[in-house]
Every structure is written in structure tokens, then in C-alpha cells.
Amino acid sequence: MKIVTDCAADLTKEETEALDITVAPLFIQFPEGEVNSNEISPDEFYRRLKNIAPRIPTTAQPSSGIFANIYKKIFDQGEDVMSIHISSGLSGTIESARIGAAQLSGKVVNIVDSLTLSGGERFQVLAAAFAARTGKPLDLILERLSKIRMVTEVIYTLETLEYLQRGGRIGRVQALTGALLHIKPIIVVDKKDGKYSTIGKERTILKALEAITEHIAKVYGKETPLWVSVLHGQFAEQAENLAKLVKENVNVSKLEIMRISPILGVHTGPGIVGLAAVPFHLMEELD
């Protein structure tokens, strides 16, 4: 079985190559033209983002035709397909995948709504790829992805809400707009519908990082071994600060610091920092 996902999963190039994962492109539409998010580095993206301020680019999901072509190539190789995508609560990508799959008569694509994004989506994709590589059956993989989905936390803060506001992606965060643009919100991805929800706000980034750490400690306690991915846009120093806080306050089996995909940076700006966390055993057993 081959795994298909999208670039919102924040996989590294090494991971996609080692696990033979196909990544469908999402597109960033700058005034001067469209860019495949897979083909622009985070730093180049943020340079271009700053150059067009106060405007921001728009984003576009893969077309159903792109998905149909991806699936056809895999089926032609004699493989089954599992396609895992960014939350339906945040993007129409999964609907494009379903329409693309429907174009292949007599073929079944196992499409999974991750109900999350970034590091949380990545955990599900990696788990599925680990399992597929070792020949685990479909029902076991789907069961494990469901467990991972229910216990993964994706939480972050922003230096400013300006980009969410300009891009019209405030959603349930809208109570923090206007005069409170400089408040640092604590935003989670809701497991029920895969949409953003605000669970707190702080006046400084340091306080926001402490609140993120407290949330993770409250959810998992201090005994559960965790795989933690700290993610940031162009905020390396604060990512290091968050990593330090997490290592001091929860049981970390694996910790990495990563950059988020430019496709997500469109709506957050460079000042995003947060993490994705999952109990380590849910990933370890499938490797």
C-alpha cells in the first residue's frame, strides 16, 4: 500500500523519500504568479511575503485531476492507496481527493481525514507509512490512525493575529481581533471537527510558550512518554525556548524542531511557534 498526503503535513524530504510517500502539492498564489508550496523554502517564502505586505498571497488546494493522476499511477503499479489529508475543517483538499478518486472506475482509495494539520497530520502519515512498509492490514492501520487522531495535540501561538485576519481565516479566533491584535493567542486544533479554537491568551510570547507547555502537561501528565515536534515559521529562538520548556516539564522520548510548510505560513506569518505531541508508543509499535 502506498501513502499519499499533502504538503500541509510538514514531512521532510528525507521522510517522503525513505517511506515512498507521495505528497500532493498545494499552491501559493503571489501577485507575480503561482508557486508550488513543495518547491519554495520557508525563508524564501517569508522574504516574498514581507515584500508584498500589507497584501498576502492566496492559497489553492490540489485539483481533483491532480489526485486522479496520482492515484492512477499508483494503481498502475499494482499498489493500493491510502490518502491522508489536512483537516476538512480547514481546507477543501480532502474533497478534491474524493472527487479525484471517484474518477477511477472500479478502484477504491482509502481516504482519511486527519482532522488536523502540520505535525499532527504528519504523525498520522508516518504511522500509516511505517505500517504499510511492514505489511500491516488496512483495518489495523485505520484503527491506529483513529487512536492517534484522538490523542494528538496540536497547539501554537502567534506573534500577531494580523495574517489570520488579513486572510479571513480567523474563524473561532475572531474574539481576539481588533484592539487585541497584539495579544498572543493559544490556539488548538479541535479534535471533534478539525477547526481552530482559542483556549487562552497571553501578553508576551514567553507567557504563551509557558501556557502551551502547561496545556501539554495537563493533557498527558508527566509520566507518558511523548513524541514532540516543535514547529515554527521564522521564529527559531522561540522554538528553542519552547523545546527547553517542554523537556523540563513533560516526559519526552523524542523531540525535534522543524519548520512549518509555507502553505501554512500564508495564514500565520513568520511569528508562529507551537508543537504537535503524541504518546510515543502509538508511533513506536508500528515502526
Brief digest:
The protein has 287 residues and is α/β, with parallel strands linked by helices.
| Side-by-side strand order of the widest sheet | 10-9-8-13-11-12
What is the CATH architecture assignment of the largest domain? 2-Layer Sandwich
**Total DSSP E strands:** 13
CATH class of the largest domain: Alpha Beta
Distance between the termini: 15 Å
CATH topology of the largest domain: Hypothetical Protein Tm841, Chain: A,domain 3
Computed over alpha carbons, the radius of gyration is: 18 Å
Overall mean pLDDT score? Answer: 92
How would you sum up the global shape? globular
Q: How many discrete structural domains?
A: 2
Polypeptide structure, described:
The chain has 287 residues and is of the alpha/beta class. It folds into two domains: 2-26 and 61-149, Rossmann fold, CATH 3.40.50; 152-284, 2-Layer Sandwich (Hypothetical Protein Tm841, Chain: A,domain 3), CATH 3.30.1180.10. The chain is built from eleven helices and 13 strands. The strands form three sheets. It has a six-stranded mixed beta sheet with strand order 10-9-8-13-11-12, with helices on both faces. Strand 9 (184-189) and strand 10 (196-202) form a beta hairpin. It is globular. The model has no long low-confidence stretch (mean pLDDT 92).
